[in-house]
Amino acid sequence: MKAKLIKETLNEQEGIPWSGSDPTKAPVIGKLLTRPMDLGDYKLEPEMLEVVEIYKDFYVINKWYKPGVPQIIHKDMVNTFIADEDFKEKEESIKRKY
Fold first, then answer.
1. Quick one: three-class SS letters along 4-64?
2. Given phi > 0 = left and psi -120 to 50 = alpha, else beta, which region is 21?
3. Would you state the pLDDT for residue 67?
4. SS3 81
């Protein structure tokens, strides 16, 4: 399966390789906190997401963007990434920060 959302840095035919068929059932390898973003008409608040795979500058999230396409987050949208084994120790400090 290939997610074909981001085309700026990848060849359109290449897509982002995804090793699993259902990201909601894939093992979580870490968590990330997105950056707050002002998009003019609306603002995106920071969100904690679970990561199932990393490919170059992209994080594959354990959610579907749409059927057959896992949600992808670019590194520019990430404030903090914590590998799963480190998450429990740092979870409270991240929650206090935001």
1. CCCCCCCCCCCCEECCCCCHHHCCCCEEEEECCEECCCCEECCCEEEEEEEECCEEEEEEE
2. alpha
3. 85
4. strand
